[in-house]
Amino acid sequence: MSQTFWSLGVRGMGQSAGSDPGDITMTEEHLRQLQGQSIRRTVQSELLSCLPLVPFGYWCHSLEVTQDLLDHLIELPSCEIHRLGEIADLVTSVRLSRIRKEKLALAMKNEGYIPKLLQLFQVCESVKNTEGLHLLFDIVRGILYLDKAILFEVMFSDECILDVVGCLEYDPCLAQPGWHREFLTKTTKLQEVIPVRDPELRQKIHQISRAQYIHTIIMPNPSDFEAGFLSTLNSFISSSKEEILQALQKDEEFLPEVFAQLTNEATAGEQQWELMKFFKEFCAFSFTLPEKRDEFLQTLAKLGFLPTLEMLMGMGDLQVRSAATDILSYLVEFSPATIQQFVMQEAQQSENDTQLITEVIEQIICSPNPEFGGDNQLMEILCALIDPEKMLAIASNLEIFEFLDIFYGRYIHVLTAPLLADPSEEWYEIDNYQTAEILASVLELLSFCVERHKYHMKIFIIKKDLLRRTLVLMKSKHKFLALCALRFMRRIIGLKDELYYHYITLGNLFEPVVNAVLDNRNKCNLLKSASMELFEFIQKEDIQFLIAHIVENFSDALESVKYIHTFQVLKTKYEQEKYQQNEKLNRYGPVSVL
């Protein structure tokens, strides 16, 4: 549970269960209006409205059953220790009937039953009545599973919450009681990282934090059979969060104060982390509300949200950076146009490289623990930011082309720095696992650029001789990195671009691939399979320019792998093409240039 006052995780949100015959859910306001005979009429009316057309005899039977249930209202046992077993049985017995659950919840509310039960808990705990405490655990959990909002308001109130949590400490399945009350009162004191001036809002925040704690930490995951029992609790938490969010957004001082403290260099590290946890959860939930999302983003834009996020991503505190990355990921998922527009405007207006794209790239290539997957999230963010197809929603083709001009003039050198930094041919030998992971991430991104930025990437690859530098990595001791290098070449050849073909043949860039086949001739591994797939693609697509180059330059070397059918087919295709060319030459003679 978060140490901030805003301990409202997105988990636990759900949808209300749909209505079916005998399954009528009533709101608290509705229940208050139902008295005496009106209860019978209302329930019968709602039953009639949702039941399908059935024979008259069935209706008579249904109405008799309904009338019988309403004529025998639930009578609650008196709140006494010796009757706790009866109470537990009663709570358990109604779980399969919506109507009986409604009636039990209403009876408990009207008779002030929950506070009376909690008084019994205090007595049982004081005299260490273990049997009574175990029964109270079953009773309180059963009441929560009634899933009624009229009871949640009582159970999560300041007066009752600690005793409710106390009852849930005495799970009969546990050898020792839990420590939920201590956690709520000492470990998490619901510190307000930014003071909330409205006392009612503050109380609401505390209430929903406790409800979230009970739902997420204490209550076990319901079985498939019980999944619907928590729908009202989910809705209660979700709607309360939405109310709190709207109230905080309308507070003219709250969010500005959050941003001011986040960007203030004087803010202590722990305080800044608490602010970031709050802001992350604030954004995580706000972005999931489609009808409120645009309004929320407009509010954030006025406060300089994206420049602030950019600054936080460049901070030394790993926790703060990680939270900022999560927020950026939410934004890319739920409102990619917002972030893309910001990136394009920033690229056009600024001449320096201290920008959001630079921050993302530098975190990818400087990741201290790339194997933990943090850079995968950053890679997804970067791909979303530089994807021309996604930019079409906010920009013209000309604007996108101009943005790519800026990207390849200002940012691509940052991304390729790990590949181009060491000019020696033996640089692949010094790679450790961390370096290999980073290089693999870079190659995945460059492969994305090959497909999405065809014109710009082609110029960059040829100008920097990037493919040659990449294929050196096929000698790496880390086979996953060698595979990434080979896949990069495969993406390039897959474009069927003649300029690329000339670049590859002039640079003799098939040599590392052929060497990989020869080195693995007696092995069965992914690198050999991927190499063969490349040659098979060339053969199936009948790319004569490359076939001729491979046969003319590597035919002798490939004699040792005659058993590989693909190379025999390539040689046959080459000879057939050469024969056809000679036939044309003999038939028509040499072509005159005059």
Core attributes:
elongated, 594 residues, mainly alpha, protein phosphatase activator activity, single chain
Question: What would you say this structure looks like, in words?
Answer:
With 594 residues, the protein is mainly α. The chain has a domain at 28-242. It is built from 32 helices and no strands. The chain is elongated, with a radius of gyration of 34 Å. The protein starts with 27 loop residues before the first helix and ends in a 6-residue tail after the last helix.
Topology overview:
Blueprint: H1 28-33, H2 37-50, H3 56-71, H4 84-93, H5 98-110, H6 113-126, H7 130-146, H8 149-155, H9 161-167, H10 180-187, H11 199-218, H12 231-250, H13 254-263, H14 269-286, H15 290-302, H16 305-313, H17 318-334, H18 336-349, H19 356-365, H20 374-385, H21 388-391, H22 397-415, H23 417-420, H24 433-452, H25 454-464, H26 466-471, H27 479-494, H28 498-506, H29 511-519, H30 526-540, H31 544-554, H32 565-588
Helix pairs in contact: 2-3, 4-7, 6-7, 11-12, 14-17, 16-17, 17-18, 17-20, 19-20, 24-27, 27-30, 29-30, 30-32, 31-32
GO cellular component, one term: protein phosphatase 4 complex
InterPro entries: ARM-like, ARM-type_fold, P4R3-like_central_dom, PP4R3-like
Pfam families: PP4R3
